[in-house]
Structure prediction request, 366 residues.
Amino acid sequence: MKNNYKTLWGIITLCGVLLIVLPFIFISISDIRVFLHSWLQIINLEENHFLSLWITFWGVIVAICGLYQITITQRQLESSQEQVDISRKELLEQIKFNEDSLIKHQKQLDLMVKQVLDEKFNVLKSELSSKNEAIQLIAVTELHRFALNHDEYRRAICDIFCAFIHSESKSNELNTRKYIKKIIYFLFVEKSYIFDEYEKDLTYSNLSDICIINGRIKKVNFSGSRIVNCVVHNSQISECIFNNVQMNDSLLKTTNIKRTDFQNCIFSNVTFNKAHIINLMFCKTKIHNSIFGNCRIMNVNFEDTEIQETQFYKTKFSDKCNMESSQIINTTFSFPSLKHKNTFKLYLSQSHLSKSNEEGNIIKID
Prediction:
């Protein structure tokens, strides 16, 4: 269609040019010139005026044709623009349809993936309670790996691990204790520390013969638990709750303990070696036959606490410690310097000790 319009307007332009030039051709031919001159005399019109009128007439014709051509071209452009707009709208609708389809397929895929993951999670959870030892051990490892790869399942897996420890910790079976130690490792020692942010319920558990090295024990409720013959080395204990906890024959070495409360607890034969004990409280707690060696105790309240047959060896007390209403019986305090001795005496003077208990205390400087 566009080629036909171009041909038509080419012919019209050529004809217009020929019609304008034709009088000049006629004038240049002598016979035609004589005829044209006699005809012009009849109509009483000079040759120059005739040529001017002739050019003007055909110029007007050509101008009208040009305007018509411009109008046609404008319409063609408008029609083309409408086609472009229609094509663009169709393309946008197609894109939106494709996007909606993609979103729909993505949701379907996500749902399928979640169903697969839920199925795998339920299988692993059921295998954890299996009576087959090998299956149980694989289930513990796979649940941890599952938590590493899928953070939306971490809280649930953390709760499952804690529930397993709570329910099985009273068992003396060797394999069960081995699984518990494996879970303890995943909860507190494994370097990713993926369970740090979740609260962990280990209440009324038997946590015996546990070793934690380079671990982070955080947000754990140990209330009512029994901790015997455990080692915590080069670790951190923070934001935990120890209520009615019995800890015996254990070692806490180069470990930071902070923002943790000990209430109604019993510590017997527990060694704190190079530990930093910061911002916590011992309330109605008994500390018997224990050792605090080369420790630093900062902003710690010993409230209504009984300290008996215990050694504080080269231990620094500083920053608002308080031993109010505490009983200190047959306990040795050894300070690294006179400054720390005088600081501790200030705390000791604020406590309410009976004379019989006070005579049993030994305070010296190495």
About this structure: The longest strand covers residues 246-253. The chain is about 50% helix and 25% strand. The first helix runs from residue 2 to 28.
